[in-house]
Amino acid sequence: GVPKEIAVAGSLDDPVTQEFVAAAFRSYQPHAVIGVADPGNAEQLPFLQHRPMRDGKVTGYLCEHFSCLAPVTDPNEFASLIVRGSGVVWSEF
C-alpha cells in the first residue's frame, strides 16, 4: 500500500474533530500515520506543524507520495478522500 499521512487540525474535545478522526479509522489503512493537530498543543509532530484549521473549521489533510491533496472541512468528504487517495498509481521502472 501507499504510505499516507492523515492529519486532522482541530481541538481534540471538539465533536467535529472526533468525527474526522473516526473517518480516518473507518477504512483499513495499514500504512497510514494519523495525527491530530490540536491548536492548543504547542508540541506537534513534524508532519502536523503546517496543517492549520481553515476558516476556523476542523480541517482534514491527506498526504501521499510527499504531496498533499487539497484540505477538506467536511468529514464525509474526508472519509471518501482517504479511501480514494490521490488516484495516482505509481509504478517502478
Q: How would you characterize this protein structure?
A:
The chain is 24% helix and 22% strand. The protein has 2 helices and 4 strands; from the N terminus they run βαβββα. It has helices at residues 15-26, 75-84, and strands spanning 4-9, 32-37, 59-64, 67-68. It has a 4-stranded mixed beta sheet, with helices on one face. α1 runs parallel beside α2. The chain starts with a strand and ends in a 9-residue tail after the last helix.
Mean pLDDT: 88
- How much of the polypeptide forms β-strand, as a percent range? 15-25%
Tally of helical segments: 2
Multimer state: single chain
Q: Note poorly predicted spans.
A: none
SSE run: EHEEEH
> In angstroms, what is the radius of gyration?
13 Å
- From the spread of the alpha carbons, the general shape counts as globular
What structural class do you assign from the helix and strand content? Answer: alpha+beta
Spatial order of the strands in the main sheet? 2-1-3-4
